[in-house]
Design goal:
By secondary structure, the protein is α/β, with parallel strands linked by helices. It has two domains: about 230 residues, TIM Barrel, CATH 3.20.20; about 30 residues, no CATH class. Helix content is about 40%, strand content about 15%. It has ten helices and eight strands. Strands 1-2-3-4-5-6-7-8 form an eight-stranded parallel β-barrel, surrounded by six helices. Strand 6, helix 8 and strand 7 form a beta-alpha-beta unit. The protein starts with a helix and ends in an 11-residue tail after the last helix. The mean pLDDT is about 95. Bound molecules: 3-methyl-2-oxobutanoic acid (KIV). 3-methyl-2-oxobutanoic acid binds next to strand 6. The site of 3-methyl-2-oxobutanoic acid (KIV) has 11 residues, from strand 6.
C-alpha cells in the first residue's frame, strides 16, 4: 500500500495539492475533508498569540497545538513546523523532531532553510524522520519587513540550488514562500518532488494558506492572501443572536434546561 507521503508525491503533474494550516481539533476536522496536507505551522505565533515574530514560538506551543489538531485529522498528511532554535545542530534537531513525532503522532516535520541546514536535514532523513523543506521567504530568519525572494540573479541561483539540494537530501516536498513567479515555475518544473506555494504563483504543484487568513479571521493586507469567507461576520451574527435571545428571554427554553 502506498504511504501518505508517496501519494502526495504522485500527485505531481496530475492534480494540485491542497495544504492548509490548523492549530486545533475543530478546524483540523473540517479542513481534513478537503486538504491533502494539514500543516501545524509556527504561524500560530502571530495568528493565535499575536507574536511579532515566529521566533517566539517554542516546541511546547507546537506540540500542544499539534496534539489538538491530530484529534481532528483522519486522512490528510499531518506536518508540524519545527520552531526557531530547535534544530541548531543535527543532534538537537533529531531529539526535538523525535519528540514532536512521538507526542503528536504527526507524519512529518517542516524545517526552514537550504544549504545552511544541510547536515540537519540529512541526519533527520537518515534517521527516518520525513522532512518537508521550506525555501524563499523564511520567517524564522527574517528580521523586519517580509519581502519576496528571487529579485536578482544571485538570489534566484541560491534558491534554485537549495531546492535541488533539498530534493537530493530526500525531502518529500518543498514549501516555496514568496518566490518570484518565473523562479517558482522553473523550480517546480525541474524537481521530481512537489512544490507547495504560498505567494509563489500558480505554477507550484500545490498551494498553502494560513486558514485564518483565507477565512477572514485574520485581518491582513498581505498581497497573496485572498479572503474566501468572512468568518468574523458569521461570529458576529451568531454572538449577536445569542445576546438578543438571552436579553429577550427567548433562550434558554425548557428544552435547553434540566
Ligand atoms: O507557519 C506556517 O503556517 C507556514 C506556512 C505559511 C507555509 O510555514
Amino acid at each position: 500500500m502506498l504511504s501518505k507521503i508517496n501519494k502526495i508525491i504522485l500527485k505531481k503533474n496530475k492534480s494540485k495539492i491542497i495544504c492548509l494550516t490548523a492549530y486545533s481539533k475543530n478546524f483540523a476536522e473540517e479542513i481534513d475533508k478537503h486538504a491533502d496536507i494539514i500543516l501545524v505551522g509556527d504561524s500560530l505565533g502571530s495568528v493565535l498569540y499575536n507574536y511579532s515574530t515566529t521566533r517566539k514560538v517554542n516546541l511546547n506551543n507546537m506540540i500542544e497545538h499539534s496534539k489538538s489538531a491530530r484529534k481532528g485529522i483522519k486522512k490528510s498528511l499531518m506536518v508540524v513546523d519545527m520552531p526557531y532554535q530547535t534544530y541548531r545542530n543535527k543532534f538537537e534537531a533529531l531529539k526535538n523532531a523525535r519528540k514532536v513525532m512521538k507526542l503528536t503522532k504527526c507524519d512529518a516535520v517542516k524545517l526552514e532553510g537550504g544549504s545552511k541546514i544541510k547536515k540537519v536535514i540529512e541526519h533527520l532523513i537518515k534517521k527516518n524522520i520525513p522532512v518537508m523543506g521550506h525555501l524563499g521567504l523564511l520567517p524564522q530568519s527574517t528580521r523586519g519587513k517580509f519581502k519576496f525572494k528571487g529579485k536578482n540573479a544571485l538570489e534566484k541561483k541560491k534558491i534554485m540550488r537549495d531546492s535541488k539540494l533539498l530534493e537530493k537530501l530526500g525531502v518529500f516536498s518543498i514549501v516555496l514562500e514568496c518566490v518570484e513567479t518565473s523562479l517558482s515555475k522553473k523550480i517546480t518544473n525541474s524537481l521530481k518532488i512537489p512544490t507547495i506555494g504560498i505567494g509563489s504563483s500558480i505554477y507550484c504543484d500545490g498551494q498553502v494558506l494560513v486558514t485564518d487568513d483565507l477565512l477572514g479571521l485574520n485581518v491582513t493586507k498581505i498581497r497573496f492572501v485572498k479572503k474566501f469567507a468572512d468568518m468574523r461576520k458569521l461570529i458576529n451574527q451568531g454572538v449577536k443572536k445569542f445576546k438578543l435571545e438571552v436579553m429577550s428571554k427567548k433562550y434558554p427554553l425548557n428544552k435547553h434546561s434540566y
